[in-house]
Amino acid sequence: GAAGAAERGAPAPASAPEPAKGAPAGPTAAPEDRYAIESELGSGGSGRILLAHDQRIGRRVAMKVLREDQRTPRALSRLAEEAQATGQLEHPNIPPVYDAGEHPEHGPYFTLRLVRGRTLREILRDISVGRAETARHFTLTRLVQILQQVAMGIHYAHSRGVVHRDLKPENIMVGDFGEVQILDWGVAKVAGRKSDSSFHVAPLALKLSSREETADGTVSGTLSYMAPEQARGWVEDIDHRTDIFGLGAVLYEILTFHPPYEGRRLQEVLERAGACDVVPPRVRAPRHEIPPSLELICLKALAASKEDRHQDAMAFHEDLQVFLDGTLEGERRAREAGQHVARGKELAREYRRLAEAEAALRLEGQRKLELFQPHDPVERKAEGWTLFDLAARKEAERIQVFSEATALLQTAINIDPASAEAKAALAELYWQRFEEAERAKSRSEMAIYRRLVERHDQGRLAARLEDKGLLTAVTSPPGALAFLRRVVEREWRLAEEEGACLGTTPLKLDLPTGDYVLVLRKEGYRDTRFPVHLGRGEKQLARVNLHREEEIGEGFVLVPQGELVLGGDPAAPGSLPAGRRFVGDFLMAELPVTFGEYSAFLDDLRAQGDPDFARWLPRTEKEGDCVRLGPDGRHAPAPEALDIDAVTRAYHAGRARFEEDLPVVAVSWHAAERYAAWLAARTGRRVRLPRDLEWEKAARGVAGWTYPWGDRFDWSFMKGGLSRPGRAQPEPVGAFPTDRSIYGVRDLAGTIREWCQDWFLEGEYRLTRGGAWSNVHEGGFRAAHRLGSRPDTRSSVIGFRVAADVG
User: Fold this and answer.
1) Which of 233, 246, 525, 536 could bridge across to 218 with cysteines, CB 3.0–4.6 Å?
2) What pTM does this model have?
3) What is the DSSP secondary structure assignment for residue 158, as one 8-state letter?
4) CA-CA distance, 149 to 518, in Å (whole number)?
5) How many of the other CB atoms lie within 10 Å of CB of 503?
């Protein structure tokens, strides 16, 4: 394809130019400012590949565009589908799509990683004409290993519902450092796709190799490598096994230096492809020393019936592995494998070092950006952005190192199947990728890497792979009845299955991994909810302090001591770095403070003659006084200032005290502190504003859920700017029952932003948590979201709730 041609022809520039002074920076840069077009790398069919310098990131990329005279609906469809299909896939053997859009000069485009190297077609051509250096480096063993990596990438694509449909040597790039990339996803088939591209998507066209002319039809792919169901135009029959045929076709050319079908006329090739008229490799190339076992693998993949082929790309990969296992012998195998293992383990260590460096750069960049407000000028944020750019480069380098390390270790296993050292190193490396996928909550990648770990593990990781753990529960005082409820996801929300009594504490429980709530009951004490997140092979000790009703008090929820999963949410503005921290017992108010509760506070301070009384009045410049003094000498919410319309009131027709039940807003951090001190004096309890980590634990539990109700988002789950039709307005606390954490704390995602005790930026901004009733950005409702505001700020979206120490 044109993309492959452009990438393999890319010159290797000495270094990227420094961005010009005054060049636009930040996410507002327009495409013409972001991409400096340097040259044309190649072209083919209707497309061109341009070498572009991404001035925002500081890297060179390949930009795929259409020829000006070829921007037909069909060509636009191809370009859109290629960008969409490739953009779904994140795998070391698939070049990532970075960006897509409309360029003012070159029209629709998408950019992807600039891959430098040679295509498998060029390598096979060099070998076929007798170029000794290429033949020495690319032995049959090496070529099969390249095809194995292709099979891995295709297996991953299949797991995501994507069928390539155009596998051939020119669409396989072998990089200068041994990396293997699958190119040109322009005719890929995506299961269940509903295109959301701005391009117009038209039916795909027939795509031919450079040896043939392009023709139109209902088939998609390249005739010389096409499965019979493709050649016959049986679109509904095309599935992942169509790509298995493509893998076999590539293997056929590796063995014979010819594609499966050749002919002088297009119709002749089409008829041969439709009939699956494949000449066996050893008949087609009798002078080549083709191993019979490899020919059998090739012919199985090229079977006319899909049911007779390998049933997935991993099975094809495994058959190649069986072949490779028998290619070398004893001592030479061990010696050669040892060299690969040593280098592979060195690269594995480098991978971990790069992962740590990447995380450190992101953390430092995040800390830099936390010092500024969203409205601060870009010049102040540039240092933080630079750190994130460096982290992105480390990520690209890390993926490259991973590809090289796995290739080396897999090669070591291929050379010496008995090499326990290589298998252990490879299993550990795949385990690290599994854990990364688990943290990212990517189930498809977890499944792929788990299978790879299981394949190579020699027993060292068995405990971690086992989906079981041990929970020991101890209470103070002992003798509490323990009820265990499994926490599952239903309709995008956390739900608790019916639990059973397990006996009295202390107790030990062997449990499947997952999330639970341990409910502990003892006469004279309030029931305690203790969330549990049990990992594979984990031994967890739950130490739970039981507290009497009078220790907790009305309106408060006990959040028992233990660890929390902290931060680590890049989609949540201001998120803390990922980590785990211990937080002791504390109490959190179930709901934010209301106007009714705050008015009682004002009444009391006024009666006491508080000299600073005016400081505590809820007021903003726009709304004015949000509380007024009534004829009865008591404070009450001012309806004209709050301006709630009849439509919003209608949602709460049964509430007699609508304004009184609204969350109090327009109060400064100082006023919230004063309220907490007043409540502490009134109740004799240690009432205060919540601390940063307390708020996050109350919202996320111990499993690090994205929202109080789980990991899925829907506007109907909490009060936000798009939760109701029409104009966004405040609503009474507790109006959205789904906005409830595992502990029973409510309105943590939406309703209002809440003042917390901590500084966001020492001496300048105080911390606020949660999302506001007017917010229309999903990231603002994530439980890791943190923002800072000046402590004297009075805003219609900022209020507070209180917390307290136990006892």
Assistant:
1) 233
2) 0.54
3) H
4) 46
5) 11
What are 253-271's pLDDT values in tens digits?
A: 999 999 999 988 888 999 8
Is 71 buried (19+), middle (13-18) or exposed (0-12) by CB count in 10 A? Answer: middle
Q: Which residue has the tokens 């205060």?
A: 688
Structure letter (DSSP) for residue 28: T
Sign of the C-alpha dihedral computed for residues 92, 93, 94 and 95 taken in this order: positive
List for the chain the helix, strand, coil content (%; round to 5): 40, 20, 40
Q: Is 373 helix (H, G, I), strand (E, B) or coil?
A: coil
Ranges of H-type helices in 588-707? 595-608, 639-642, 646-650, 669-683, 692-700
Q: Contacts for 474-477 with beta carbons within 8 Å, 24 or more apart?
A: 474/505, 474/506, 474/541, 474/542, 474/543, 474/544, 475/505, 475/506, 475/520, 475/522, 475/544, 475/545, 475/546, 476/543, 476/544, 476/545, 476/546, 477/522, 477/546
678: alpha, beta or left, given left = phi > 0 and alpha = psi -120 to 50? alpha
Write the CB contacts of 589 (distance below 8 Å, at least 6 apart in sequence).
555, 556, 557, 745, 801, 802, 803
Distance CA 408, CA 431 (A): 17
Using alpha carbons, select from 335, 803, 341 the residue that is nearest to residue 555: 803
Q: How far is CA 705 from CA 464, 741, 742, in A?
A: 22, 10, 10
Q: How far apart, in whole angstroms, are the C-alpha atoms of residue 564 and residue 702? A: 5
In angstroms, how far is CA 378 from the centroid of its own chain?
A: 27
Burial of residue 632 (number of CB atoms within 10 Å: 0-12, 13-18, 19+): exposed
Beta strand residue intervals within 425-574, DSSP E: 468-476, 481-490, 493-496, 500-504, 507-512, 514-521, 528-534, 539-545, 556-559, 562-566
Residue 258, token pair as written in the block: 């010819």
329 or 246, which is more confident: 246
Q: How many CB atoms lie within 10 A of CB 89?
A: 21
- What confidence tens digit (pLDDT) does each residue in 769-784 have? 999 999 999 999 999 9
Residue 550: count of CB within 10 angstroms of its CB = 8
Q: Looking at residue 742, what is its pLDDT?
A: 96
Question: Does residue 61 contact residue 98 with C-beta atoms inside 8 Å?
Answer: yes
Lookup: tokens for 589:
């108010």
Give me the DSSP letters along 340-370.
HHHHHHHHHHHHHHHHHHHHHHHHHHHHHHH
User: Which residue carries 């086992």 as its tokens?
Assistant: 466
Dist CA 107 CA 104 (whole Å): 6
The residues, ordered by sequence, that sit 6+ positions from 359 with a Cβ below 8 Å of its Cβ are 391, 577, 578
Residue type, 389: D
Residues with Cβ within 8 Å of residue 775, at least 6 apart in sequence: 720, 721, 750, 781, 797
Give per-residue pLDDT as tens, 405-444: 999 999 998 888 888 899 999 999 998 898 888 777 787 8
Alpha-carbon span 544 to 604, nearest angstrom: 38
What pLDDT shows up at residue 219?
Answer: 52
CA distance 577 to 710: 20
Please report, in angstroms and rounded to a whole number, the separation of the first and last CA atoms in the chain. Answer: 71
36 and 55 Cβ atoms separated by less than 8 Å: yes
Q: Residue 570: is it exposed, middle or buried by C-beta count within 10 angstroms (0-12/13-18/19+)?
A: middle
How far is the C-alpha of 267 from the C-alpha of 617, rounded, in Å? 85
At 651, list the tokens: 């949602």
Would you call 275 helix, strand, or coil by DSSP?
Answer: helix
